[in-house]
Amino acid sequence: MTDLITPITMPKFGLAMTEGKITSWNIPSGAQVEAGQEIADIETTKITNGYESPASGTLRRQIATEGETLPVGALLGVLAEPAVSDADIDAFIAKFQADFSSDNAADTPADHAEPIMVSVGDLTLRVQEAGQGDATPVLFIHGFGGDLSNWMLNQNALSTDRRTVAFDLPGHGGSSKNVGDGTPAGFAATTAALLDKLGITSVHVVAHSLGGAIALELAKTCPQKVASLSLIAPAGLGQSINMDFIEGFISADRRKTLEPVLNYLVHDKTLISRKMVEDIIRFKRLDGALQGLQTIAKACFPNGRQAEDLRSVLASFAGPAQIIWGEADEVLSPNDAKNLPDTIPVTLLPQTGHMPQLEKAADVNAALIKLAK
């Protein structure tokens, strides 16, 4: 009967995820479940994600309790048809738990490479690499106030046949807090130097928000390094910017004031976890972090408008390019993607905010993989 039992295990939402917390079960034990149905909410270090059932069946057991934190791969529940006896389920659970404990003891501390610190000129950048293979590498560039964890649901998906690199821009995450003049051009120069340091000559660039403007500057100054452009809700294609988000992100210093600001980022507000809010508050308290954000905001969004108009760069880019945008973006308007050359496909995702790579990761990953082939 064990072949009629399907384990529900803690998923691995991103390269750096080693554990998750069950914040809630969305269906009770004994309920019928369809494959792909969201059956639980799982909180990682950055976001809360709905967990889709891997198969159809009856949820016979909830092993994990709400509020419990478990490692990736741990047993959360069991799917089985009513014909399967309780004794068979008990035996399946006991064997799974014993095998899982044994595997964990034999494993290395982690099945992913930890971020490393890379010196680039007088800066130190935190870099997360994954994957290997002969295909052209992929570089991920995050946006204002973000870090490499913004790609936690994407980098793994593109690492099956190639090297992938995500990094914290200067002034962000674990990188040096010196942002220079804070302009996209300055960040693009640092990005080019990082690629040289890593021995990478050409990359598919995946960039989000302010990272989009940085990617376009990189394509302008170092076109030989950019094999393709996938721009997700990019800056640099219009003038408007939600300054309530920018100014609020800089000034908010408590969970009560920061959480409403972060809500601008997503259509589904439940994705903004308490841990995410607390991590950003801790980051902003680091020496130089706040000053760096202020410098970037002043350089990139003077007088509440975007400083850079890079539409001509995108229009003249020789390689393949695409735009991905959430229709419900509250930070940058998807209208900025209008009137681009017909050769640049634009994907608008419904019920999606400023971070499609988190809200609609499967759709975004499919588009990224298609362009990078």
From TrEMBL:
Gene3D superfamilies (alphabetical): 2.40.50.100, alpha/beta hydrolase
CDD domains: lipoyl_domain
Keyword presence, Electron transport: no
Domain Lipoyl-binding: from-to ranges: 5-80
PROSITE patterns: BIOTINYL_LIPOYL
Keywords (A to Z) from UniProt: Acyltransferase, Pyruvate, Transferase
E.C. no: 2.3.1.12
GO molecular function: dihydrolipoyllysine-residue acetyltransferase activity
Protein name according to UniProt: Pyruvate dehydrogenase E2 component (Dihydrolipoamide acetyltransferase)
Species for this entry: Acetobacter lovaniensis
